[in-house]
Amino acid sequence: MATLLHTLKSHSSDVNCCSFSATTLASCSGDKSIRLWSLDTFQELSISPLLGHAYYVHWVRFSPFGTILASCSTDGKVILWDARTGETLAVLQHPSRGIIRVCEFSPNSEMLLTGGADSVVCLWNVQTKKMMRTFEGHDNVITACVFTPESSFVVSACASGDLRIWDALYGQVKPLYFDPECHDLGVSGLAISPTFGSADPNAEINNDRRAYLLASCGGDNLVKLWDLIVFPACKTKVRCSLPGHTAKVMSVSFSSDGSVLASGAVDKIVIVWDPLEGKMLYTLEDHSRYVTTVTFSPDGRYLASGSNDRTVKVWRLHTAGEFATAPLLTETGTASTSLEATAPQLQNLLLEWSVNDVCDWLKALGLEDYQSSFRDNQIDGQELQALNTDTLVNDLGVKALGHRQKILRGIQTIREKGNGAIPTDDGIPDEYLCPITRELMKDPVIAADGYSYERSSIEAWVRGNKSSPMTNSPLVHANLTPNRSLKMIIQRLYNL
C-alpha cells in the first residue's frame, strides 16, 4: 500500500516531469522553472528554483550519481545543471534548434539522450558535452527514449506510435529494430526494468540471448509489457497488456528493485502494478487533474506523481506483502482501491453538434479533406462519439494513422469537456495548443511554415529567430493569417 506524505505546491503551472536522486526530488513545469526538494524534510532547497529556460520545461532527469541534473524545454535547449550548486554546466541544442521533449542519462552516466519535435534522437557525451551521433528515422515528435541497463542500446518512441532500437556504442546510426505499431494512438512513455532478465545483477549472462523487460504506455489507454531482446538480434515481443486506465497513459516507471511498476494517466489516477505477474496492485487517486509523470526514489521508499493540477504528490510505499490487499489512505483518510469512481461519464456536449459542426471541427484540425466523407455519411455529433479505428479506416477512408489519432484525440477532448474538464497541455489535442507555449490558443494565427501559433507567442519568437520553431526552416515572410476556424472551435469547446 501507499500513504500520501506530502503535496508540493510551489509550481504555478502544469508539473510535467519529476526525478529523484539519493537526496533530492526535482520537478519541472510549464512555469519555466525546475524546483528542488530535500528528501529529508521535503522543504525546497535554497538553490531552487532553477531558472534558465525561456519557455515550457518538459523533462528533468538526474544523472545516476545525482551530481548533474538535465532539463529540456520548448526553447530548444537542454541545460545541464550542477545538482549541488544549481550552476549551469552546459547548454546543448539539436542542430535543428527545435523543441526538446525528453532527456535521459545512460545508467553508466557517460551518455545523455535527447529527443524532440525534429523527430531526431541525439546522443551526447556527458563529459565533453559534445554530440556523439544522431538517430534519425521517426516521423513524429520523440516522446520517450531510454537506455538498456548496460548502456549499450537505445530504445526510442514517438507520437505516431512506433518504436525503434539503436546501437549506442559502435556508431551504427540505422535502427537495429523497428516496430511501427507499439501503441496505436502514440507512445507517451518507456521504462526498462533494472533487475529483470539480463539486468538481474545475480544473473549469469547468457551469450546466446540477452533480454530485458520493457514497459510502454500510450494513447490507447494501455500499459504494455514487452520482452526486449538485444542479442543475438534486436526485437520485441508483447508479454501482456495491462488494462485499468480509462484515458491516455502519460508515464510509466519501475521501482529500483523492479518489483513494482507505476503508471499515471489523463484519468487522474496512478496505478501500481506487479510487473512480473502482470496485475494491478492498487490505485492512488488524489490528483484533481491529469497525471503527467510518475517516478520512484532510488531506495524504493517513495513514489512521486506530478499533475496538471500544479502539484507534486509524494507517496510513502510500504511492504510488498501489503500491496495486494491494503487500501490507499489519503490525507483525508479516504480509502480507495477501485477505478469505478473515476471512470468518465459521457455528457451531452457532442449530441448538440450537427453535421456542419463536425465538418467545421475537421477543418479546424486541418483535416478538411475528410469533410465530404463525413458529410456523405451524415456524421453528426452523436455518430462522431461512436467512431473507432475500424470505422474511420473502412467507412470514412481515414487511412493515415496520424489523422486517425487527431480525430480520436479530439473526440476524447470533447468528452472531457462535457465532464467539466479544465483544458490543459497533454489532455487536449496538440492542434489546440500553441507549439511554443503549450497553452490553449485564444488568437491562433497561421505563420509562413503552415503551423498555427498564439499570435503574441509567434510575434515574440520571430523578434529573436528567423526560422520556424517547428521545422527550423527559414520563415520566408512575416505575415500572420488568422485561423478563424480553429479559433471558433476552441471558443465553442472552452467558452473563451
* Integer-rounded radius of gyration: 22 Å
- Helix percent band: 10-25%
Counting DSSP E segments of at least 2 residues, the number of strands comes to 32
Strand fraction equals 35-45%
- How many domain units? 2
Using the alpha-carbon principal axes, give the shape: globular
CATH-assigned homologous superfamily of the largest domain: YVTN repeat-like/Quinoprotein amine dehydrogenase
CATH architecture of the largest domain: 7 Propeller
Q: Kindly name the structural category.
A: mainly beta
Mean pLDDT: 85
How would you explain this protein's 3D organization?
The protein is mainly beta and 496 residues long. The chain folds into two domains: 2-337, Methylamine Dehydrogenase, Chain H (7 Propeller), CATH 2.130.10.10; 350-494, 2-Layer Sandwich (Herpes Virus-1). The chain has seven helices and 32 strands. The protein has helices at 355-364, 371-376, 381-384, 389-394, 401-418, 455-464, 484-494; strands spanning 2-8, 15-20, 24-29, 34-38, 57-62, 68-73, 78-82, 88-92, 100-105, 111-116, 120-125, 130-136, 142-147, 153-158, 163-167, 177-179, 187-192, 210-218, 223-231, 235-242, 249-254, 261-265, 270-274, 279-284, 291-296, 302-307, 312-317, 328-329, 335-336, 444-446, 452-454, 481-482. Strands 1-27-26-25 form a four-stranded antiparallel β-sheet, with no helix packed on it. Strand 11 and strand 12 form a beta hairpin. Helix 1 packs across helix 7 (484-494). The longest helix has 18 residues, at 401-418. It is globular, with a radius of gyration of 22 Å. The relative contact order is 0.10.
